[in-house]
Each structure stands twice: as structure tokens, then as C-alpha cells.
Amino acid sequence: MSGDGRASEGGEEEVRGARRIPGPRGAADDLDLESVPLPPLPPPGGNGPDETVPEQAGAGEQAVPGDGSKPADPDRGHPEAEAAALEPEPKPEPGLEPESGLEREPEARAPEAHAPEPFMSSAAPVLPHRVLKALLGAWALSACSAEETAAVEDHLTECAPCADEALRLRDAVGLLHTDGSLDLDPTLRTRVIDGCLGRRPARIPVPEWAAPYDAETARLDALLRDIGDSEWHAPVRLQWFEEERAVSRRTTVAGVIGHLLAVDGLLSAALGLDDPLGGGEVPLDPTERTETYWSAEGPPPTRAVREPWRAQSHELIRTASFAGRNVAEASVSYGTFALPLQDALLERAFECWVHGGDIADAVDYPYQDPSAAHLHRMIDLAARMLPAALAGRRRAGLAGPAKDLVTAGAPGRSLHLEIEGHGGGDWYIALDSPAAVGSPERAVAQVALDGVELCRLVAGRISPVEAAAGQEGDREAIRDVLFATASLSRL
């Protein structure tokens, strides 16, 4: 090419050493700006990498070799070389590489400015519905990452079906991770029976006064079904009070059930049922009946004693239910005293609970107290038996003399028995005569006890001096009542 820009003759021959001239460029409107990488920004106050301004010599001055300027061009003075040198150096288009034979001079790179760190968003990731639904199980198990948990919980506020499913899964996880005991809820049987009877009442219902015995025999039977064969020989120590001292007797789990079977036979005989001790002359005292049964058994009894005991308890409840109201007042003799059948069944329910606790302690089994309503009735029976027990101790010289005798049915000196907690209430115990009536107006002392603590005292499991009782008033009356309460216990 000549100096005027026209193509010279022999245009196929390129000037040796000259840079290649790029082809025509497109219009600026046709350029895709997003596909073009942006050059790095120069530092403040500096020039870009392509903005180096060369120093220009003055008019008529030439660079002298060796003085730090560029060496003299060997083609200087050649017309075509001078024309090519006057052409501006084109900038390469993006994507075009220089020829392999030409090396580019290294360019001075401006120091890169510190790029700002990318902003990390704390928002939950946007996930499709099917993915969020698949994550519900992991979310219920708390196995999701923090981002997944946030995404699922945001989704649950907007999607009702997924929210319902999440609640069901959380409930299921609660069942999988239970820390409670594997033993059945002691109230499960009662709740199931109540639910069944609520739908279809029994044709012949169990009398209300027989309900405590029905419940306690069922609870004890559930314990006996759960223990192994070897545990029937576990040692059990039975305790009670005679006069002023504690007495104990060693036996086994099977021996305790034999004791309950023998004493329950008193109620069977009163209802005309078979006595487990057989016919003929059999003792009426509960302790003598137990000793007779144990001696007749020979070898120590085993699990086989459970079936006759449970069959007898079922027969007692069935007979009492069919007999109706008239049988409630039938007398049951205990040798030295007698009780109506409704009180005798309540006393047997109390005995069943106490000995159930003895067995549970021997085999390390959880055992709950009776319901509040049943426990209240047991405490009421003990309170009604206390005046007679006081009179018996007074005849034996173990209690102080009566201080104010009154006619039968009249209010006499009384002790206020305040029972707190489970099955609690207030009772007034006549102090001087079983025929007198307890009265709040004539109360001379007060004793406060927990309901279960009082029952343990009645059963002979703690001594009168160990009972945690709040006391106020006549000290002699308080002592007599506490020791009379312990005297109600027996084998």
C-alpha cells in the first residue's frame, strides 16, 4: 500500500514485518455488549494499560543511539516503510490471536483494585414443590441443613397439604423417640372399659361398693402375668403390728398370693361359694387361715396358685353383681370381729393393693396407688374402724382411760383427722366410746397426714412414731389414735 492509502501494484506481497490490518468492523448498534469482557479499571489517578503516552521529540531532533531512546529504524527513509509507520496501530478485536511468529511486548498491568466480596444472601433457597415435599420426612427428623430447614418452613406457611403432612410426620417421630417406660399405662384398662361401657352399658353392672376390689385384683393380676417363673420364688417380707411392737414374716411371691386366696375365702363362704381351704372345721382368723393354707400346700407354691386366686376373685364379683343390693349388708366374720360384705370387699381391695406393692418391691416392678375415689373409700373405712380399735386397746391396757363418756349417739370428745393429698378429706374420730359420734365442736386434737402415709400406717409398713404427722392439741389422744391406727394391721 502506498502512502496515500491506495493499493500498490503487486498487492499480494505484504510488507515484511508490518502488522496485519483487521477487516471492517460492524456498527456499534450491532455489538453484543454483554459478550464483551470489560477491561480492568485503572487505579485512581493512573492510566490504563493502553493509555501510555510516548514522549515526542522536538522538531528536527533525532534519537541518538545509546542515550536511552529507541535505536534508529533501519527502514527509515524507505517510502513504503515510512507510509506503513504513519498508519495508526489497530487494536485487535476480541477473540483474535496474534500470529505465532510475532511476539507482543509485555504490557504494564495496573495493580488490580480489591474487588468487593460477593454478598451472601441469607434467604432460603428457592426449591420446587416436589423437592420440598420430599424433604418433609428429613425435616421431621431434624436431619435437614439450615438452608433446607428454612426453605421447608417457609413453604409450610403457604402450602396447607404439606403443613398437614408435616404435623403427622412430627407426631410419628414423637412415637419413635419416646423416653417413657415400655410398661402399659396403669389406667389403660380403666379407660378402655369406661369407653366400652359408655357405648354399651353392662347388662348387670358391678356394684359401686365392689368396684375397688374389682380394680385392685385386676391390677395385681396384670403384675403377676408380667413376672417370670423364677420371680415367683422371690423373697417377700410381710410386716404388721401386734400390741406395741412390729412383727414380720418371710415368704415368697407365690406365698403372698396363697395368703390372699385363703383370706378371700371368708367372703366366698359368706356368699355360699366354695372355700379354698375345703369343708369341715376351718379357722376364721385371717392369720390362722393363712398358716393353715401354707402348711397344707407342702412344697412352696409356684405360678399355679394364680389361677385359683383369680377365678375366686371373679366369682366373688360376679356373685355380688347378680345378688343386687340385698347382699351388701351380709355379715362376713373375721373371727374376732365382723364386717358387712361391702366393707369386707373394700378391706380386701386395700389388702390386695398393699400386698401388690410388696410383690412389686420384691421383683422391682412399677406399681401405682389406687385411684383417688377408691383410696378415699379405703381411708373412710379405716376412720370408721378406729373407735372400736381404740376401745380394744383401752381394754388391753394399752391406751388411756376414757375421760368423758356420753350416751350412745351423742357427740363426744373427738380428734380431727385431716388427710391431705390423694384421696384426702376430714374425719372426726370419737375418742371415749365407739357408740359416740365424732364432732367438730368437741375436737380436742388434730392430726394431719398424707393419704398414702395413713394407709401405710394402717398396713403396718411404718411405725406410729415414723408417721410424718402434723399434730396439735391433746398429746395423749394423738398418741392413742396413731397406735390404734397401726393396730389395724395384721398378716
**Sequence of strands across the biggest β-sheet:** 6-5-7-8
Low-confidence runs: 1-15, 48-79, 81-86, 93-108, 118-122
Largest sheet: 4 strands, mixed
The proportion of residues forming helix, as a percent range, comes to: 25-40%
Distance between the termini: 134 Å
CATH homologous superfamily assignment of the domain at 208-368: dinb family like domain
How would you sum up the global shape? elongated
**CATH architecture tag of the domain at 208-368:** Up-down Bundle
In DSSP terms (H or I, runs of 4 or more residues), the helix count works out at 14
Number of strands: 8
Mean pLDDT: 80
- Structural class call reads alpha+beta
Which fold does the CATH topology of the domain at 208-368 refer to? Four Helix Bundle (Hemerythrin (Met), subunit A)
Share of β-strand residues:
5-15%
Cα radius of gyration in angstroms = 52 Å
